[in-house]
Amino acid sequence: MAVIKPFMAVRPKDELVKQVASLPYDVLSSDEAKHAVESNPYSFLHVGKAEIDTNDTSGNNIYKKASENLKYMIDTGILVKENKPCLYAYRLIRNGHVQTGIAACTSIDEYLNGTIKKHELTRTEKENERLKYIEYCSAQTGPIYLTYAPNENIKEITEKITQANPLYDFTSFGNVRHTVWKIDDVKTINELVKNFKHVKNLYIADGHHRNAAAAKYAIERRNYGDSDNEYNYCMSVLFPSDELEVLEYNRLVKDLNGLDTDSFFEKLSEKFYICPLNTDKPFHPLMPHQFGMFLDGKRYMLTAAEGTVPNDTIGGLDVSILQDCVFEPILGITDTRNDSRISFMGGVRSLEELEKKALTENYRLAFSLYPPEIKDIKEIADEGKTVPPKSTWFEPKLLSGLFVHIV
Question: With b meaning 16 or more CB within 10 Å and e meaning fewer, what string describes 346-368?
């Protein structure tokens, strides 16, 4: 069963919500974040990307600055604390796509016992970075993006909640509309809690490192105090899986691994049908196992040949096909997490941007992919397996600063 719990959120003052709410820390570079806050002293980036406010980033100074900035935002009333535990309905609308989730706390124990399932590997250094943020701020500053199998009772309750006047309603980054309703009556809270108990599993869509860090923090704290405490829960937003939009994660590669163009095409043709394209627009794949390729300013369509796609949940993913049939055997890229020759671009960015990056930043190759399906991601998580790095891009992104969970 899935355990959810209301929490006493720290959240923006109503009239400042649009200025406070920011893109997640891992979506912007430090330079982009600095630019974003130049005319906005209220931005939550002062917490999530605290390096923008200090010249000394050695040791733990970034985390100390994040803690100072969070305290300042609370002390000055930019952020206010609820006077009782609440849940929230959180709706995002992007390009006509609508998804509505429930913001709540989820159980660390259910993360540890596998009720909350993951599909990505995490890196220890990134886990520890997120852990430091929690330790210094005594707070979880960004929600986990979770999904679950659609539940009619939860849908009906959510629809009823969203008929009322919202707490927040504003349009922000990327022309995404964000609407939040506060759920503070005990009856509705209890109904949601009860119905989520009938949800067998929750799945992490985005936030693997944040959830792992929250679990580490809880384990540390359990050695010092009462196990029934806020640190045993992780701030999350839960969406039904039939409302999620999953985008592709495209790739760029610096060189052909010492091959000339003819040799590269010869090796590529062993696994793919190659079709040159005489078009003035980038090619977006129309189906799984089809790829767009941009090489030296020219466009191609690749289609996996017979026998190329294994009958395997992970091996059959398009990111796996590229890795197993192109990147590793032909281009010599074995570690996509750390190889400096490869770069990634989320599908929310246009293919025109992908090609421009290839041309202006000296990448020989760019690949566009067909987006994976959420059912495949859930199947992999159910099997206890993990997808290759940079396999999924969920859009729209949850904003940071809308809710903070004090632990």
Answer: bbbeebeebbebbeeeebbbbbb
